[in-house]
Design brief:
Structural class: mainly alpha
Oligomer: single chain
Number of domains: 3
Number of strands: 6
Order of helices and strands: HEHHEHEHHHEHHHHHHHEEH
Strand order of the largest sheet: 1-2
Largest sheet: 2 strands, antiparallel
Shape: elongated
Radius of gyration: 33 Å
Distance between the termini: 127 Å
Number of helices: 15
């Protein structure tokens, strides 16, 4: 009997060992099979697919969504692979732009790292707030109305450390990338942060030495920005305005007048120049109430570091540059040469 029991125990141990080996082989096969599957793209197509994973969406629903979008072959294997590498709790909510020729491994990495689809917003130098609002609307991130409401919300603007009734001039011209559902306030905060990245302590110190506040500096810079597209001319244009301000001479700059006209049709008339508005620098003394556009770094530098000249006038030469004059007589001659003669021709 003892020999029979020992024999049975021995057989049981052998069977147990064999079973364990079989289980290990099956587990290894499954492991390597799942891993192999994770490296195989669903298809060779480079077609992009938008996948919007809502907050609270679990692995089961995410897998089903990926299958529905033809991005994975098997939700079951995808779930198994996700759990196997410990990513089942790491998938982040958001809008993703994925390609059908991505492997499950690539897709999972993107979802776990939260590499969401980003919307590009490009703000050119010299764009006014209303123009920027249209660019934001075109990006699909916010409608113009909501953006303008935030951009003119005094309490919100004050929270950014800005003493103004509008964010005009404080939205730094740059290229920005935002994920879907970014709020207008977040967009504005990011653009204002862009300004303060380049408006260094040296700039603040220089503006204080010149007797200009940040708001006044940006106002002057915005006028310089609108007056010329030539970087080389900006310090000279700036010198003209500084020289005029020093002697109490009106700025008499067309861009400010245009800014103060509702629904400007592109034709600046003598009547416009004679119509009082807070921005008509042919009538008011000094700077207008605030910026008329978003100045770039070059225009801001020009406002703070004007060229050393005695110029008081400038007139367009119709080639994107200007003729500068120190006195009115010389200026009139330049006007006749570059403007009146052109009209006659």
């Amino acid at each position: 009997m003892k020999f029979i029991k020992k024999d049975l125990i021995k057989k049981a141990l052998v069977l147990s060992a064999v079973s364990a080996v079989i289980i290990l082989i099956i587990a290894a096969a499954l492991f390597f099979g799942v891993k192999y599957y994770s490296k195989i793209p669903y298809s060779e197509s480079e077609e992009t697919v938008i996948v919007d994973i809502q907050p609270g969406t679990g692995l089961v629903k995410t897998s089903a969504l990926l299958k529905q979008k033809d991005l994975i072959k098997s939700p079951l294997i995808f779930k198994a692979y996700t759990v196997m590498i410990g990513f089942d709790k790491k998938i982040r909510a958001g809008e993703y732009e994925l390609r059908k020729n991505m492997s499950a491994s690539e897709i999972l990495t993107i979802l776990a790292e939260g590499r969401v689809k980003l919307y590009k917003i490009v703000i050119p130098e010299g764009y006014a707030l209303s123009q920027i609002a249209l660019i934001v609307e075109a990006s699909g991130l916010s409608d113009k109305k909501s953006f303008m409401e935030s951009a003119t919300d005094r309490e919100f603007i004050r929270s950014l450390g800005i003493k103004a009734d509008s964010i005009e001039g404080y939205l730094f011209p740059e290229t920005y990338l935002f994920p879907k559902k970014t709020s207008p306030q977040k967009i504005i905060k990011t653009m204002v942060a862009g300004l303060f990245k380049i408006y260094t302590p040296d700039f603040f110190k220089k503006s204080e030495q010149m007797g200009l506040s940040l708001h006044e500096t940006l106002t002057l810079a915005s006028i310089i920005e609108k007056e010329t597209g030539s970087a080389d001319e900006r310090p000279i244009i700036s010198s003209v305005f500084h020289n005029r301000l020093k002697i109490g001479m009106r700025l008499e700059t067309d861009p400010t007048v245009i800014y103060g006209i509702n629904n400007f049709d592109g034709n600046l008339t003598r009547k416009d120049l004679e119509t009082p508005t807070p921005y008509n620098t042919y009538i008011i003394n000094g700077l207008p109430p605030g910026p008329i556009a978003s100045p770039g770094e070059s225009a801001i530098k020009a406002a703070l570091y004007p060229a050393d000249t005695k110029y008081l006038y400038f007139v367009s030469k119709n080639d994107s540059t200007h003729h500068f004059s120190e006195n009115y007589k010389e200026h009139q001659n330049a006007v006749r040469q570059y403007q009146l003669r052109r009209k006659q021709d």
